[in-house]
Amino acid sequence: MAAEILSDQDLLRRMAAGDEEAFVTLYRRWSGCVYRFARQMSGSTSIAEDVTQDVFLALIREAERFDADRGSFPAYLYGMTRNLVRRAIERASSFVTMQDGDGALDQVEAGDLFAEMERAETVARVRRAILALPVHYREVVILCDLHGMSYAEAAAALGCAVGTIRSRLNRARALLSERLGSSTSAPVETKRCYA
Amino acid sequence: MLRLRCKKFASSVHDLVRNRPADAERFEAALAHAAECAECARRLASAQALALALHGLAVEDERDGVPEELERDLVIAFRQHFASKERVAIGSLPARARSLRYAWLLAVCALFVTGLLIAYRQSGSNRSQSVQDERAARAERHELRASGSPAIESVVPEKAVSKKGSLNVVRKGVRRGESLRQRRERAPGRRAIDGDSIAGEIATEFIPLVPPELLPFESGQIVRVELPRAALVSLGWPINAERSGEWVRADVVIGADGLARAVRFVR
Q: Which of A20, A121, A142, A152 has the highest count of CB atoms within 10 angstroms of its CB?
């Protein structure tokens, strides 16, 4: 059976038995998510690389630690990544600025230059705004708004209740809107509406 | 038609924007409400702008791939991990062999210690036996002197009573299964009665006290004793009556069972 169509759990089982193809398949399936999540959380490419490496090394060494009864494999993987990123951020102690930022301008055609510059600038500001959020707000925004997770999946990955995810996300979005207000929209004010 | 109020609109505007395709009716209601409420219209515009910005960031980040060397390094780590696991599995065999070797070593040590203990106990019993023998020899000597006709067989082995009454231990080993003739032949410096001597001593041949066929001899000791000359009578030797009070030296072969097997006289 081709490894590509196997479930994560089957791949993990094969990987634990020494199947290199299963490991490569699992890595290619999930490494992008892990790497992006780590990079978005930390703002650092080097931290993202280190965390991605550590996550998959942990999978190599302790594949049998995953228990399907306790949650899905993505939740397990994101949970592990989140813990490692948090530790890396604490070690770095200071906020990490974007190193390679938005290099998309290198590939821009001359005609779209201004539009691309504007888009790149917007992306950079959104990234900075996310990085400026407290970690517990940042992670829910990244998981739900950037990685497309449902509240339940994010709750499983972060080990908290769905209600907590919902409230954190509302607060995080409000903070983001405030910080991006000048370019996106006016800040949201809570006023009584009689409509 | 579904109607939303401002509070509900504010709390769900981001979800509405995010789930627009899946919740079209709710979104239409939100749009209708925003058309009537300027504040909620602003909230909706803000949420849409944020969603757009976040989507742009997500798309931008999708372009970033994981460095290829990371996969290469991890595959190497994967191979090394399972190679080391195999080494551990193979390495367990020598470990078992080592433990077996230690077990053998322990067994040998235990045997050695047991042997030492046995030897110590035997020497202890020999010492206690010696004390008993010494007492018995004294008593025997007194009896012999009192009666003047001792039985050779009753002479206590290993100890010789000197003229002065002190105990002189004279031990000469006899090999297991070795006959008296063989033992004599083994001692080149010793001659038989006709010329057999040790350091100036002259000795007779060993005279069996018990027929060997009746009491087989396997091992024992030669004990030098002093006897009254009168005791020679019991062996059928003629004695000079005038010298019957004198003492003669003799070597008595004592078996492992403590019984005298043979005797010879030494001058």
A: A142
